Each structure stands twice: as C-alpha cells, then as structure tokens.
Amino acid sequence: MVFDVLITGSILYTGREIIKDGYVYIKNGKIIDYGQSPVPEDYTYVNLILGGSGRIIVPSLTAVIDAVAYPLRLNSPSLKERVELYGKIPPSEAVTLSLPAVYEAHMAGIGHVIIEYTSLELPNTLRSLIGGKYGLAYPSCIGKPPGEPPSVITIYGEGCGDSGQIEVRDGSGYVGGERVLALFSRATYSRLDGDPLTESNRLREAIGLKPAAIGKNERAEIAVYNASRPPGMFLDKAGEDVIRRIYVSGARLETLMVGDAILVDQGEHLYIVEKHFSEARRAGLRILERR
After folding, report:
1. Alpha helices, DSSP H only, in 76-148?
2. Helix, strand and coil percent figures for the chain, each rounded to 5
C-alpha cells in the first residue's frame, strides 16, 4: 500500500536553502519532491496533508542520550555508574525507563536517537515499539561493541576510557572537542544550545552519516514547527540564522516524521503517552530507593 504525505509551510529550510511557501512530497518514507508552491496537482491527492500557513519545515536532529539513566539525571552519574545500572536491570525495564527521555528527544525535534546502552536489543526494541530511527552508543569499558557503524558507536567517559569518537567531560558530550547536541545526565534533554543543526550534523559526520537535509530520494527526517502562534509567532519571517535555531526558539513542535512513521502530530506524541510516564516513574522510584 502506498502511503504518501504532503507537508506545506510558510518556510521550508532544506538544510542548504530557504524556500518560501514550500512543500515536501513524501511517498513510503522517502522524499520524492520538494519546492515552492503552487503544489503540483498530482501531489494533492495524498493520504495525509500536514503543516500549513505559518509552519516552518526543517530537517530533524540527531543526538546521543543516556536514556535509561533518566531517573538519575539530576545527580549527573558518571559513565561507569550508568553502566553499573544497565547491568542491574532487565531489558524490559530498560525500555520502560528510556521512554521519558525518548519522548523529550522527539518533542525537541530529534528524530534519530542514539541510545547509550550495552546491547542492540534496546534501540531495536524502541524502533519496533515506537518507530523512528535509533542507534547504539556502546560504553568502551564493556568491550568490543556489536554491529558496525553507523548503527553502533563507542562512547568513552569516567571509568570507561578517556578518548575516542565520543567523549564525556564534566557531564557533557563532545565530538572532536565540540559539545554533542543532547547533554548527558543533565536535568532535561530538551535544553539545546547554540546551533543545534550544526551540532547534529557534526555528530552525524562523526558516526559516518550524511548531514541531515531535505532532498530528493532522501529518507524523510523532518520536523515541522508552528510559527503562527506565540511563542514562535512570526519566526517564519526571519532569516536563515534564526531559522537554523528554530529548535531552541520556543516554537511549538507540531509534527515529527521519520521515514514513514509520524511520531508527533498536532504537538502530541502518538506512541509515548501518560501510561508510559506512570510506568517509568514507578520503575525509576524503585531504582532511586535502592540507591
């Protein structure tokens, strides 16, 4: 079955250029065409139309997060402490504990989530349960990681080595001396600074991926922000330097699409909901009580 989507917006930023009154046509998770309105008539007979006036369409982001350690994030646990935690909980509980962090990542426009863990089971399970794109950040002190890049990267940190592709210093992530987009073990994963798209693309380069971009024949990795209402109102009238910071502007994320999966629609996550937060809280409280 063909599943095709048309996304329209006042601004389309492809990662390379700004197109006013732009559109993106996607079929079965792949970008077939994009450009400036008017939209070709053939693209108007689709399964789903997203976006609209006042929306800003941009590439989604890539980030590394230590999602399983979410309950401990206020204490900024070292990598060694996080690895110890991973060894004490069953895989099913790791999935439950990961959901709040994955939710925050998705709601911050991060479509490609690289999960710190000790096996591919966790990112593979999240992919099948939620949809989207996942990789594995494998702690260096565990030994040789499973799989091959770009699915798996090695992460270094306190007690687990002090150099490598991904380093952890003072609780923050770095790529070649630059800070990784999602900060490790901070109070929230939603606190993004600087130019998130640049940081995201530096990470993608470090793990062997092309820069995130909206282009023909590319897999859809797209975020849509609502600039028709406060706090993002009139951002669609801004220049490229502001558009590149849309992820940290306070504008409301309206849609997140990764491949043929729509993860966020109308500002609501479609797969991670209140019952998951309750389950994660109960699991997190058990861990905190043991500590």
Report:
1. 79-88, 91-107, 121-130
2. 30, 30, 35
Residues 47 and 79 in one domain: no
Distance CA 230, CA 26 (A): 29
Q: Do 122 and 219 reside in the same domain of the chain?
A: no
How many domains is the chain partitioned into structurally? 2
Using a 10 angstrom Cβ sphere, with 0-12 exposed, 13-18 middle and 19 or more buried, the burial of residue 214 is buried
Asked whether 14 and 34 are in contact (CB, 8 A), the reply is: yes
193-235 confidence digits (pLDDT tens): 567 888 888 778 777 789 999 999 999 999 999 999 999 999 9
pTM, two decimals, is 0.91
Residue 131 lies in a domain: yes
Give the domain extent around 76. Answer: 61-206
Q: What is the DSSP letter of 232?
A: S
